[in-house]
Design brief:
single chain, alpha/beta, 7-stranded mixed β-sheet, 17 strands, globular, binds hexanoyl-coenzyme A
Length: 530
């Protein structure tokens, strides 16, 4: 090689013009096929998408990716079904556009189902295209984002289509914990088809035009005699605020895709630590935040919004909230300290006094596990009066669900920094990333109350109404327990800190914790309570 210099090719374009290499006739056919692929189900059907307020599959990808970076794969791949006149219904690409491109300069794989082609229905071929990009994304370590708009299994393909779905499910599971997987539901998603998004890390929906259900309104009517609309059964509002299936919803396709670009900016490309993103810092790590102390009322029974506290502390007040409409007694979201992504979790006294309940436990547990799988440090703000009492909670299995959050925090080996802003009572004190669950750095603000329960309840149980003087007893208990001194004396909090120093301290801790290592005992996997 060293002695033979590469030949100089003067006219690069001569290659494709050479009829012996690429026959002109074939070139025309190829171009025609490409044109057909770009048109999907045709202009009329694209107009129908627009009339619904939706974009076409390709328009969506254009918005998702940085300009001109999308590289399509399998544009010409076609189905091989001969049933029900399907030979006459061949569309190059087979109802799904797949490939990769850049989002804010970083590689991301994506598929976009094309509703204009046979309702975006999933054939064996369509599934193979999905699996191919998932496999590629896993190999190179890049996220996969799926834009779902499909009538489900392609009826003409029968079991081939069902098999295709199962192949996709398996690929989802194989990729779980290796690369971030995000689903955006932008049209119908029904039947077994819902289970591919359900196995991804995040599901987002578009208001009014998307829906998800296992069985549609007609089947519901036949089986249970309930009358319910598509929207009330599986529209975005149901899934972001009732079922907890979806992690957020957006007004339209454009807003959803813009939000995905913002979310991807916070996420690593894979579970390889080196892919954690670092944004250029514009907010100094040693910024004092005197205003946070004023946000927390002195009266322990007065509510405040933990989101205000979080916004003051993180870089530029920028938080991408996950599940903002579900279990609002706990806040979860991505933010940054000195340009490095963290997962923020905070009890929110504004709803249910910040109690932990079934939904809050599930919401936060899944978020903690995502962060842990992808090396994202956890910063927890605690103001929790305990678990929510009541038969509804007990019958619903709060023991099992609360255990998920406890388990998730205990298992997480990423850097864990915890700040108790006010109450940390009972079992919830232990659960919320306490020192005992191997949190790395724990702090309390001076007004924190760390105890088994509030003063009134405690005095009642301690003295059963036979105390000397209830007010005196409460004062004594408050003096002894309703402050962070004992926890600090035990080393359960590393320090009692001035609230205005909180950002500075968190930034310092996260810096030293970047090299944290936790030895692991080999095991197949743990058995988190489900
Ligand atoms: C083949 C389909 C299709 C499907 C829609 N189309 N769904 N073709 N297989 N599953 C076609 C239609 O025939 C139509 O073709 C075009 O897509 C647009 O559909 P319309 O019905 O005109 O659109 P719209 O009125 O908006 O209704 C959308 C819809 C409806 C609600 C999704 O099409 C529908 O109910 N489809 C069937 C849904 C279904 O039962 N899927 C199977 C689910 S079970 P033309 O040529 O007229 O444009 C499942 C199992 C997965 O998915 C199992 C995994 C384990």
């Amino acid at each position: 090689f060293a002695s033979s210099p590469a030949p100089i090719i003067e006219d690069d374009s001569s290659f494709s013009k050479d009829p012996s290499v690429l026959k002109l006739k074939f070139k025309e056919r190829l171009e025609q096929e490409r044109q057909n692929a770009l048109l999907g189900g045709g202009l009329k059907r694209i107009e129908r998408q627009h009339a619904k307020g939706s974009l076409s599959a390709r328009e969506r990808l254009e918005l998702l990716f940085d300009d001109g970076t999308f590289h399509e794969l399998d544009q010409l791949k076609a189905h091989r079904c001969h049933e029900f006149g399907m030979e006459q219904q061949k569309y190059p690409g087979d109802g799904i556009v797949t490939g990769y491109g850049k989002v804010n300069g970083r590689f991301v794989y994506a598929f976009s189902q094309d509703f204009t082609v046979l309702g975006g229905s999933l054939s064996a071929t369509h599934a193979q295209k999905m699996v191919k990009i998932m496999e590629m994304a896993k190999r190179v370590g890049a996220p996969v984002i799926g834009l779902n708009d499909s009538g489900g299994a392609r009826i003409q393909e029968g079991v081939d289509s069902l098999g295709g779905y199962a192949d996709v499910f398996q690929a989802n599971v194989d990729a779980s914990g290796v690369i971030p997987q995000i689903s955006v539901i932008m049209g119908p998603c029904a039947g077994g088809a819902v289970y591919s998004p359900a196995m991804t890390d995040f599901i987002f929906m578009v208001e009014s035009t998307s829906y998800m259900f296992v069985t549609g309104p007609e089947v519901v009517k036949t089986v249970t005699n309930e009358d319910v609309t598509k929207e009330d059964l599986g529209g975005s509002k149901v899934h972001v605020s009732k079922s907890g299936v979806a992690h957020g919803d957006f007004e339209n396709d454009v807003a959803a895709l813009r939000a995905m670009r913002r979310l991807l900016d916070f996420l690593p490309s894979s579970n390889d630590k080196s892919t954690l993103p670092v944004k250029e810092v514009t907010d100094p790590g040693d910024r004092l935040v005197p205003q946070v102390a004023r946000l927390v009322p002195d009266d322990p029974n007065t509510a405040y919004d933990m989101k205000d506290v979080i916004r003051q502390l993180v870089d530029n007040g920028d938080v991408f909230e996950i599940m903002p409409d579900m279990a609002q007694n706990i806040v979860t979201g991505f933010a940054r300290f000195e340009g490095h992504t963290v997962g923020v979790i905070g009890n929110n006294p504004l709803t249910l006094a910040g109690c932990l309940d079934i939904n809050a436990s599930n919401k936060a547990a899944r978020f903690v596990r995502f962060c842990d799988a992808f090396n994202i440090p956890l910063v927890t703000f605690v103001d929790v009066p305990g678990f929510l009492p009541g038969t509804e909670q007990e019958f619903g299995g709060i023991i099992r669900h609360g255990a998920k959050l406890l388990f998730a925090y205990a298992e997480a080996s990423v850097p864990k920094v915890t700040v108790i802003t006010r109450k940390a009572y009972g079992g919830a004190y232990d659960v919320m990333a306490s020192k005992h669950l191997r949190a790395d750095c724990n702090y309390a603000w001076p007004g924190a109350e760390i105890a088994v329960m509030g003063a009134k309840g405690a005095v009642n149980i301690l003295y059963g109404g036979k105390g000397r003087n209830v007010d005196e007893d409460i004062a004594e208990y408050t003096d002894r327990f309703a402050n962070p001194m004992v926890a600090a004396q035990r080393g359960f909090v590393d320090d009692i800190i001035d609230p205005q120093d909180t950002r500075k301290i968190i930034c310092n801790d996260l810096k030293i914790l970047r090299t944290k290592k936790m030895p692991e005992i080999p095991k197949k996997h743990s058995n988190i309570p489900l």
